[in-house]
Amino acid sequence: MNNQDYSDKPHEAAAGVPRHVAIIMDGNGRWAKQRGLARIRGHQEGAQSVIAAVKACQKIGIEYLTLYAFSVENWCRPREEIEGLMALLKTFLKREEKMLHEQQIRLRVIGRIEDLPAALQKELRRVCGKTAGYDKGHLTVALSYGGRDELVAATRKIAGKVLAGELAVEEIDQNTISDNLYAPELPDPDLMIRTSGELRISNFLLWELSYSELYFTKTLWPDFREKDLQEAVADYARRRRRFGDIE
Q: Among all residues, which ones are annotated catalytic?
């Protein structure tokens, strides 16, 4: 059980430092196009920004990092690009697994994992299993993910419990929804960052972002580095989170 108390304000790691940061990693294709390169080159450079973000979170003291890597809508992209992305993900896992172990970072994956190629599913499950005991940092990657799909899946699980007599309809509350999401053990994000200048959340963590602070930057994801994360956190630290309260 999540046992989240919605009467309390979300916990933060330290004054001015968000405990959980979620990032929509946008702009890989535009970065490549600006340089006359194939789109996959943008994704390859974006992988370096992932490493930079993970290390920066460790340095700043951000406990949870969730990255929107591939949405359910992204399956409509050209097959060549999708195949390149899936291969890149598998290579990235093998190459960076050592870093996860050294930093004792737990890897989680949320989304419709069954949509992914079998070999990639196997590698993801292996690395997630190997890092399951770590608690120095938490990296969650959203793959074949959609916020609406997550809520549909949660609704089906709850309906199943009601039909099985395990849950009464009148017992359903906000905690019930949270407890049936893809990763109910994760705290809601304090800060959501989107790169590339787009001003929307694109079906990302629709339930979890209810009270998150939103930060948008024109920086394309392949150019996003520690200083960019520091700037987002500094902006976050200047805000006053009221959660419905008055000034």
A: 26, 74
